[in-house]
Amino acid sequence: MCGIVGGIAERNISEILIEGLKRLEYRGYDSAGLALIDHHHVVRERQVGKVANLVEAVTSRHLHGNLGIAHTRWATHGKPTQNNAHPHASGEVAVVHNGIIENYQELKQELQQLGYVFSSETDTEVVAHLVNHALKSTPDLLTAVQTIVPRLKGAYALGIIWAQQPDELIAVREGSPLVVGVGIGEHFISSDQLALLPVTNRFIYLEEGDIVRLKRNSIEIFVNTVLTHRPVKELDATVMSSSKGEYKHFMLKEIFEQPEAVQQTIAQALDAEHLKAGFLEKADGAFDTIQQIQIIACGTSYHAGMVAKYWFEQIIGLPCQVEIASEYRYRHPVIVANTLYLCISQSGETADSLAALRDVQRHAKQQHKTIFTMAICNVATSSMVRETDFHLLTLAGPEIGVASTKAFTTQLAALMLLVLKVGEIKNSIAADLKQSVIQALWHTPKVLNETLKNDAEILRLSELFVEKQHCLFLGRGTHFPIALEGALKLKEISYIHAEGYAAGELKHGPLALVDNDMPVVILAPKDEMLDKLKSNMEEVQARGGELFVFADEHSDIHAKDRQHVVHIPAVSEWLAPIIYSIPVQLLSYHVAVLRGTDVDQPRNLAKSVTVE
Ligand code: F6R
Question: Boundaries of each Glutamine amidotransferase type-2 domain copy (predicted)?
């Protein structure tokens, strides 16, 4: 997704901006650019493709300046061309923008009538012209921006500079993430704090509606033209480590970090045999009153929610619904009092999930219904964490690979902790079941480590997928969502068409797809559905399908003709979805590497989807 970096310093800012853009590459983009103020003029460079192309152009032009803004663009309005790349300029004003200006057509017409000529197909260019136009009535960039912002409809973050005021940068946050990086005698902005880690670990997290004026020695934040104060927060070292180390890709590194990430996530909540006394204590009263749970999420996080539905209902008898945020937000759902609305998100900035959360909050207030909101999230400073009543952090550390791996398994661990907590407060979980789940949770990192030892075997199997066009993933019960997740992983990074199905649904349609050329991946933990699953495997084999089975070591499933089996260590059926995520991640990763795709930044995708 688009990325913004900007800053004002005594030193040359262009290298800092470029390093920032490189750090945003993981988010996905198709063009990049920067604008600097040099000798009272805007100088601009924009290139299609990788940041490396921009670096080459900036170096050959020897561009430098003390004030600048830069951007990686993920095309929404108009193709990825040089003209559509940011920054956009009007006169001596330059603008970078994340998000969408919904009323840009109407504004564009108005500006064209005033004589402004558009050189791009983007919605962003209207902002540059509007600011330039406003500067005809005021000599001050901040005032000009404050005048035009109320006219912009949509969700956006902006960075704006003007050659006539070469000592200040104006930034706006309205529905799209933006942080201020606090330095000494220099300050920065970015849509993602990771971009600024080489220059600072001190951040101000802007709130919706904030307009900021950065000068070298001051940071002023305005809400509706009134000066306000926002705290400066310091990041700790774990958030700051984001290198690939010995691994070829971030995705592989993150797959292998899962035992540690899950361990960290559970250790915040459990001591040897119990939930810690202070764990989610603030929510005790709310958990006591809730009658049901509504989970809202997107993509992989939605799959985590699907697993949790089984757990909430089977372990503590609490009704639970799960819905994709982009559907939920538009179907005018009935708000039910005494519901816990639970958003799950790695980034905490996903536009659809945030919009659904805000709608729920607004409607509940209008209808005078008591509800509670909660986030399970990997980013402590995210909008979602700040806007919910309670939160539980997944302690996965930064996830850089676009395909989510450790965020998913830590979400599952966090969800199980929540099941235990709500069950304990409601007194709806049997003591022995609670004990065995806690023991299984503590055991999970060890089993994850053992499961990762299957890597070489899975690599061998992945060679059989390289030429395939399609693939089916099958599971039952809590492994139906893992089948969906396996299919999502394979399609997003290897570009092989894949479908996940509940194995019992096979004969209601998808069995027609099965032939000699169709690999079928089966998730076969040892649970009460195993015998039923074995029958589903027979159905596939009888039609010539080739089976790739990840099976419990005691499942009595063995390799035979057109049936490849990787044995997975025995694990409690409750925690098995965490363990069976590993082989599907590894399979997708190796297939993608063998097919030569860009594993960490797959085509057309972005890490944090901050537009609708
Ligand atoms: C897939 C993937 C996406 C995200 C989805 C939601 O590997 O990463 O499907 O899960 O975009 O993102 P978050 O969890 O940040 O809300």
Answer: 2-217
Cα separation values, 375 from 169, 388, 411, 559, Å:
33, 6, 11, 43
Contact between 313 and 305 (Cβ < 8 Å): no
Distance CA 13, CA 516 (A): 58
Q: Can you tell me which atom of ligand 1 is nearest the CA of 300? A: 10
Facing residues of 256 across strands?
none
pLDDT, tens digit (0-9, with 9 covering 90-100), for 399-418: 988 899 999 999 999 999 99
- Residue with the smallest CA separation from ligand 1 atom 5 is 299
DSSP 3-state of 178: coil
CB atoms within 10 A of CB 79: 11
* Sheet-wide strand order for 519-524: 497-502, 470-475, 519-524, 546-552, 563-568
Contact 561, 568 (CB under 8 A): no
Residue 364's SS3 state is helix
Q: Can you tell me the distance from the alpha carbon of 195 to that of 388, in angstroms, rounded to the nearest whole number?
A: 26
C-alpha span between 548 and 556 (Å, rounded): 15
Q: Write down the domain spans for the chain.
A: 3-240, 244-449, 453-612
Domain 3-240 bears CATH identifier 3.30.990.10 = no
The secondary structure element, H or E, covering residue 515 is none
d(CA 17, CA 37): 13
Task: Report the separation in Å between the CA atom of 405 and the middle of ligand 1, taken as the mean of its atom positions.
Answer: 10
Indicate the pLDDT class of residue 79, thresholds 50, 70 and 90: confident
The size of the chain, in residues, is 612
- Tell whether the torsion through CA atoms of 39, 41, 42 and 47 is positive or negative: negative
Q: In what order do the strands lie in the sheet with 210-215?
A: 88-90, 93-101, 154-162, 169-174, 210-215, 218-223, 226-228
- Two domains, one topology: 3-240 and 453-612: no
Extract the tokens encoding 347. Answer: 């980034």
Residues near ligand 1 (Cβ within 6 A): 298-301, 345-347, 350, 353, 403-404, 488, 492, 608-609
Catalytic residue positions, numbered:
2, 607
For 453-612, CATH gives: 3.40.50.10490
Q: Nearest-CA neighbor of 296 among 337, 343, 336, 339?
A: 343
Rounded CA-CA distance 436/244 in Å is: 36
Q: Provide CATH code, domain 244-449.
A: 3.40.50.10490
Model confidence pLDDT, tens digit, residues 524-549: 999 999 999 999 999 999 888 999 99
For 240-279, what is each residue's pLDDT tens digit? 556 777 899 999 999 999 999 999 999 999 988 899 999 9
Give the SS3 label for residue 330: coil
Closest by CA position to 472, among listed 440, 512, 436: 512
Inter-residue contact 34 to 71 (CB < 8 Å): yes
Task: Fill in the amino acid letter for 3.
Answer: G
pLDDT at position 74 is 85
Q: Which residue's CA is the nearest one to ligand 1's atom 16?
A: 345
Question: Residue 556 and residue 561: Cα distance in Å, rounded?
Answer: 16
Nearest to 603 by CA among 29, 71, 21, 91: 29
SS3 255: helix
